[in-house]
């Protein structure tokens, strides 16, 4: 039976999805905005449809336009990638109701995981440890609130229930700052997310960011593909990721892996997903679940040989998960550097024309990117240009391989954060894996 999938995204992930479709002999329809006519994957797509103007709201977030393109080209399914509409439950619902299979979990699962309080309560019921805190509506009575917070203990973090993208959060160190912090966070949440509900969590001061990759077939079968460490972050944006996460407490890890897989089995989870945790003093604290493919999925693929994007497509077509848990073999260590079009000094985005470039390559090196010499990076979207991924027998060797890959890679015409990566890979704290999620911003960048 022949299948046709519409790829509702752009850039490297659209190309990644197109490659997976071609390997599965699935026909592709690629949609693009008016400034994206020169995207690489469009040249290899069976059909292409322009869905609107450059601004995301007019194109990649324009649900009616995407659904019209799907109708026009008579696709079977829609692949959302990451970002844009990938975790929009209403979009998933409309795709399914219009007769196009949304490639991802059931709408209700996306909805449950999109609301942070619902998600926390949901996973806690499945034996997954969450950050201690208070998830009900905050009491008006000051003494009652004080008692609640004293039980949690300062510092705390106020978080918007509907928050996302690292926004809508505020750390409170002492009672003196509490009232004003609550007021400001609620106001900001109302402005940014149209919902002023906030909740309280214990602030975990110096954690690592650890995540677990899961895959479910929607029929009660599920597996995990181990861990990733994404602790090298700036403003909650990941810069370097690796798999497996080094130096975790093995007993706690095994128990968390079991719980994550059981959760997926019990809710008939469909597709790929990632459970994100803060990890401090050998303990895991759940923060959120992403119900889509992640940018950093290649590090997991490199150590397992398991193609996560093909798995998404296969599962959506009812073909199930190719391998059992026992057949997943973890092999060595992988690292990913996200090359962004940005000034390495002040992190300002740097769109513009790439006049000349050369990619990295060789044994154990993977390069996922949509850019080429002559490509004009538009200013309207995420600044991700390329992902360089290396895999080797050990963490140390994969870092060495990455250093060599970064030396080979060059882009001219626009600025990139390549030197930032090179400096991080030379840093003792990183090399010894002693960094936490605060290290890059609070220590590394300040010392330069
Ligand atoms: P978002 O959905 O906006 O990405 P998350 O809940 O995933 O929000 O949190 C984003 C980041 O904020 C985390 O990776 C971590 O750096 C920080 N953070 C969130 N909750 C806490 C907490 N309880 N303690 C310390 N840091 C936190």
Throw out a few tags for this protein:
single chain, 448 residues, alpha+beta, Rossmann fold, Dna Ligase, domain 1, D-amino Acid Aminotransferase, Chain A, domain 1, five-stranded parallel sheet, 32% helix
Explain what you see.
The protein is α+β, with helices and mostly antiparallel strands. The protein folds into three domains: about 80 residues, Rossmann fold; about 70 residues, Dna Ligase, domain 1, CATH 3.30.1490; about 240 residues, D-amino Acid Aminotransferase, Chain A, domain 1 (2-Layer Sandwich), CATH 3.30.470. It is built from 14 helices and 21 strands. Strands 14-13-10-11-12-15-20-18 form an eight-stranded antiparallel β-sheet, sandwiched between helices. A five-stranded parallel β-sheet has the order 3-2-1-4-5, with helices on both faces. β1, α1 and β2 form a beta-alpha-beta unit. α3 packs antiparallel against α4. The longest helix is centred in the middle third of the chain and has 17 residues. The relative contact order is 0.11. The model has no long low-confidence stretch (mean pLDDT about 95).
